[in-house]
Amino acid sequence: MRFPLLHTLVCCITIAFVSMPASAFEWRGYVAGESRVFLHNPLWDGQDDALATLSISAQPELHHEWDGGYQQFVFTPFLRIDSVDDERTHFDIRELYWETSRERFDLRVGIRQVFWGVTESQHLVDIINQTDLVENVDGEDKLGQPMVNVALVRDWGTLDLFMLPGFRERTFPGSNGRLRPMLPIDNRRALYESGAEEAHVDWAARYSHSLGGWDFGLSHFIGTSREPRFMLRADGMRLVPFYDQINQTGLDVQWTRGSWLWKWESIVRS
Fold it and tell me: How many domains does the structure of the chain reveal?
């Protein structure tokens, strides 16, 4: 990413460390190994024909609260090293932000992960963070997103306002990766509808509230789509992602009745 991400990072780190007292931090996290076993030969040219691939991942988390719990700092980096696919070997900052909470509002500055929605599989309204597709094909893993988030907490509900400086491109398996389409995806030549490309500033808002057994959220997003469409490269050998500018309005509803949860998500996109 370009300058907006760098500026956000510098701002986040400066505010957090200037404000924090010298005291102990809380650490947690994990280190994990993974093996993928393939029972069939590769389908496409260029894919590695290894029977199994190995990888190791690590995600530590640093957390610190002060000012009576009204301020906190969170840092969550992520690293994966894959034995075959160079594109799957990657580092990302999942979260790096400072938060201050007051009686009627919260302010968060830095890199965060924000989830919208209620359904268990297809998350239609969840649009803030980009998908880290090299992690898993289910799309559940997300990249960190630079943001400034103000949450207004009132009796009538919570209104979240987002400024999102700096776009994250979706990750894709490399040409030798097994879980890729027939034509490899050339992520280094991604195209954008906006002339600002990945430096475009996106905006979003979400209103959420709970009434009895009902929980609902109404959201709107203006900016670069997290879901690219694909164009064939001039040589016909690779696909190139193209990121459109979109407006998306979303509605998510959950109704709790006894031991049943009824869920609904819908979007309108233009």
Answer: 1
Measured CA to CA, the distance from residue 193 to residue 212 in angstroms comes to 43
Q: How many CB atoms lie within 10 A of CB 236?
A: 7
- 232: Cβ contacts below 8 Å, ≥ 6 apart: 183, 238, 239, 240
Torsional sign, CA 196, 1, 184, 38: negative
The residues near 39 (Cβ < 8 Å, ≥ 6 apart) are: none
- pTM summary value: 0.89
Instruction: Give the tokens for residue 170.
Output: 């979706």
261 touches 255 (CB < 8 A): yes
Tell me the CA distances in angstroms from 234 to 147, 173, 186, 187, 237, one per residue in order.
36, 21, 12, 15, 8
Residue 43: give the domain boundaries.
Answer: 3-269
pLDDT in tens, 139-164: 999 999 999 999 999 999 999 999 99
CA separation for the pair 43, 178 (Å, rounded): 8
